[in-house]
Amino acid sequence: xxxxxxxxxxxxxxxxxxxxxxxxxxxxxxxxxLLDTYYPEQSVTVTSxxxxxxxxxxxxxxWQKNKLMRSGxxxxxxxxxxKIGLAIKDYNSAELSRVNVMSNAKSMWSKVHQLxxxxxxxxxxxxxxxx
Length: 131
Fold this sequence. Notes:
Layout: H1 3-6, H2 20-38, H3 56-70, H4 74-97, H5 105-116
Helix pairs in contact: 3-4
Protein backbone atom coordinates (compact mmCIF):
# COMPACT_ATOMS: atom_id res chain seq x y z
CA UNK A 1 0.00 0.00 0.00
CA UNK A 2 1.35 3.42 -0.95
CA UNK A 3 1.46 6.51 1.22
CA UNK A 4 -0.96 8.60 -0.87
CA UNK A 5 -3.48 5.78 -0.99
CA UNK A 6 -3.47 5.53 2.79
CA UNK A 7 -4.10 9.24 3.34
CA UNK A 8 -7.12 9.48 1.04
CA UNK A 9 -9.31 8.56 3.98
CA UNK A 10 -9.27 10.87 7.02
CA UNK A 11 -6.09 10.52 9.04
CA UNK A 12 -7.63 11.99 12.16
CA UNK A 13 -11.14 12.74 13.33
CA UNK A 14 -11.47 15.76 15.59
CA UNK A 15 -13.76 15.61 18.58
CA UNK A 16 -15.15 19.12 18.98
CA UNK A 17 -15.75 18.75 22.71
CA UNK A 18 -12.22 17.45 23.35
CA UNK A 19 -9.21 19.27 24.77
CA UNK A 20 -7.30 21.04 21.96
CA UNK A 21 -3.94 19.79 23.23
CA UNK A 22 -5.16 16.20 23.34
CA UNK A 23 -6.59 16.55 19.82
CA UNK A 24 -3.30 17.92 18.55
CA UNK A 25 -1.35 15.12 20.25
CA UNK A 26 -3.61 12.49 18.64
CA UNK A 27 -3.27 14.14 15.21
CA UNK A 28 0.51 14.43 15.58
CA UNK A 29 0.71 10.78 16.66
CA UNK A 30 -1.28 9.68 13.61
CA UNK A 31 1.05 11.63 11.29
CA UNK A 32 4.17 10.21 12.96
CA UNK A 33 2.76 6.71 12.58
CA LEU A 34 2.24 7.27 8.84
CA LEU A 35 5.76 8.65 8.45
CA ASP A 36 7.29 5.74 10.36
CA THR A 37 5.36 3.27 8.21
CA TYR A 38 6.19 4.70 4.79
CA TYR A 39 9.37 6.69 5.39
CA PRO A 40 11.30 5.00 8.19
CA GLU A 41 14.47 6.66 9.43
CA GLN A 42 17.70 5.31 8.02
CA SER A 43 21.07 5.56 9.69
CA VAL A 44 24.31 5.91 7.79
CA THR A 45 27.79 5.96 9.26
CA VAL A 46 30.10 8.60 7.88
CA THR A 47 33.68 8.25 9.05
CA SER A 48 36.58 10.67 9.10
CA UNK A 49 38.15 8.60 6.33
CA UNK A 50 35.32 9.38 3.92
CA UNK A 51 35.96 12.10 1.40
CA UNK A 52 34.35 15.45 2.27
CA UNK A 53 31.61 15.15 -0.34
CA UNK A 54 30.45 11.82 1.11
CA UNK A 55 27.60 13.29 3.11
CA UNK A 56 25.03 10.96 4.71
CA UNK A 57 22.60 11.32 1.81
CA UNK A 58 25.33 10.54 -0.73
CA UNK A 59 26.57 7.56 1.26
CA UNK A 60 23.01 6.21 1.48
CA UNK A 61 22.53 6.63 -2.27
CA UNK A 62 25.83 4.79 -2.88
CA TRP A 63 24.60 1.95 -0.68
CA GLN A 64 21.32 1.83 -2.61
CA LYS A 65 23.17 1.88 -5.95
CA ASN A 66 25.38 -1.02 -4.91
CA LYS A 67 22.33 -2.96 -3.74
CA LEU A 68 20.64 -2.34 -7.12
CA MET A 69 23.78 -3.41 -9.00
CA ARG A 70 24.05 -6.65 -7.03
CA SER A 71 20.42 -7.47 -7.76
CA GLY A 72 20.91 -6.84 -11.49
CA UNK A 73 18.79 -3.70 -11.74
CA UNK A 74 21.37 -1.86 -13.80
CA UNK A 75 19.06 0.84 -15.24
CA UNK A 76 17.89 2.00 -11.81
CA UNK A 77 21.46 1.91 -10.54
CA UNK A 78 22.58 4.06 -13.47
CA UNK A 79 19.84 6.61 -12.76
CA UNK A 80 20.90 6.73 -9.13
CA UNK A 81 24.54 7.11 -10.16
CA UNK A 82 23.55 10.22 -12.11
CA LYS A 83 21.90 11.67 -9.00
CA ILE A 84 24.98 10.84 -6.94
CA GLY A 85 27.22 12.55 -9.47
CA LEU A 86 25.06 15.69 -9.40
CA ALA A 87 25.11 15.78 -5.59
CA ILE A 88 28.90 15.48 -5.55
CA LYS A 89 29.24 18.11 -8.28
CA ASP A 90 27.00 20.52 -6.37
CA TYR A 91 28.98 20.00 -3.16
CA ASN A 92 32.34 20.50 -4.87
CA SER A 93 31.09 23.58 -6.73
CA ALA A 94 29.89 25.14 -3.50
CA GLU A 95 33.17 24.37 -1.74
CA LEU A 96 35.30 25.75 -4.57
CA SER A 97 33.17 28.88 -4.88
CA ARG A 98 34.16 29.81 -1.31
CA VAL A 99 37.82 30.12 -2.31
CA ASN A 100 39.06 33.31 -3.92
CA VAL A 101 41.04 31.92 -6.85
CA MET A 102 42.42 35.25 -8.05
CA SER A 103 44.00 36.31 -4.79
CA ASN A 104 45.03 32.99 -3.25
CA ALA A 105 45.89 30.16 -5.62
CA LYS A 106 47.50 28.14 -2.80
CA SER A 107 44.24 27.91 -0.87
CA MET A 108 42.43 26.92 -4.07
CA TRP A 109 44.84 24.03 -4.69
CA SER A 110 44.60 23.06 -1.04
CA LYS A 111 40.82 22.82 -1.43
CA VAL A 112 41.19 20.80 -4.67
CA HIS A 113 43.52 18.34 -2.92
CA GLN A 114 41.08 18.05 -0.02
CA LEU A 115 38.14 17.36 -2.34
CA UNK A 116 40.05 14.78 -4.40
CA UNK A 117 41.35 12.95 -1.34
CA UNK A 118 44.99 13.91 -1.74
CA UNK A 119 45.22 16.07 1.35
CA UNK A 120 47.05 15.19 4.53
CA UNK A 121 43.90 14.59 6.57
CA UNK A 122 43.36 11.22 4.85
CA UNK A 123 46.82 9.80 5.49
CA UNK A 124 45.75 8.05 8.72
CA UNK A 125 42.85 6.20 7.11
CA UNK A 126 43.00 2.50 6.41
CA UNK A 127 41.68 2.83 2.91
CA UNK A 128 43.86 3.96 0.08
CA UNK A 129 42.83 6.31 -2.66
CA UNK A 130 44.21 5.52 -6.07
CA UNK A 131 44.73 8.26 -8.59
